[in-house]
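Work through this:
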Amino acid sequence: MTNNSLNSVVILGPAYPLRGGIANLNEALCDNLIKSGINSEVVSFSLQYPSFLFPGTTQYETSVIKHPFKITPLLNSVNPLTWIKAVRYIKKNNPQLVIVRYWLPFMAPCLGYVARKLRKHHIRVIAITDNVIPHENRIGDKSLTKYFIGSCDAFIVMSEKVKQDIEKFTKTKPVQFTPHPVYNIFGEGVAFDTACEELNLDKGKKYILFFGFIRHYKGLDLLIEAMQFVDDSVHLLVAGEFYEDKKPYDDLIHKLQLESRVHIADGYIPKEKVKYYFSAADMVVQPYREATQSGVTQIAYSFNKPMIVTNVGGLPEIVTDGVSGFVTDIQPQSIANAINTFYTNNLKEKMEAGAASEKNKFGWAKMISKITELFHTIDSKK
């Protein structure tokens, strides 16, 4: 048994110049670990996905960003020689703890191999599992996930659903729940008029926002259908890259004659542009068919924006119905009813205050405390 405090961590997962929510959280986690006095760095990917497996246009940030910590791109997800290289690098640095990000069964062989080798050298491994059972299932997912779960000492989850999913694979390894922390990486909000000028929007309209990449399970089509039941003064901003065929969405907009009320920014939104979309919007809508947790809710909280979320996965754990937004059924009329209630009852100011208050539940100190607690639990079993 050891009584050492936690003072050195390596985060294993994507980071800049790779883009996206997983990378964003890894970078923010590393920054906040360092601020809490824990020496930390990130070991990232030199190649995350082969190009034929990536549905977007690019895997890389267009913004130039400097981070106050070390990011070392070593892992190629399909080249086992780089897995060995990553193990050697981490062993040489000899951290007390490695935090592995797991979000997709495709990554199980790579991340699981590294985790197993490190544990043989008495380095503790905790996984932050965004998803255990993926939104879009494929043959082999269960076996790959089982392999990865067996590679780790313990787990951090950001929704109760993911905790339940892990317990389908292991009943003995420690699992700690802590909500997805609020992002603080997109800067301060700007005035509505400034945001409209930047995005070339009519300042005389009201805007709701759908943000993030688009796939069927995220329910953008449900929100588009809901727009036909909402007052014409309300417009929909869609800001994100299509990870599937855009045509069915365009066809639906045309069918419902919503061309003038749905504004699509098709593509990845650079970090420095994010604040304009959230500042232009009165509220953020997440009409998901399936969910675990979502980084979009925490971006919304960072700008004090109310939200409409569907009653799936961990979303109702994050948005308090009637305080920081609404929780609705997964169907267009229910979503439209919430939008109409928000505007008819002039709830913008009240729910912005609610969001500003609620976001205090989701600080980084809580996640770091859970990580430290979990580390001591598994370290005592050496």
Observations:
- The mean pLDDT is 91.
- The chain has two domains: 8-181+363-379, 192-361.
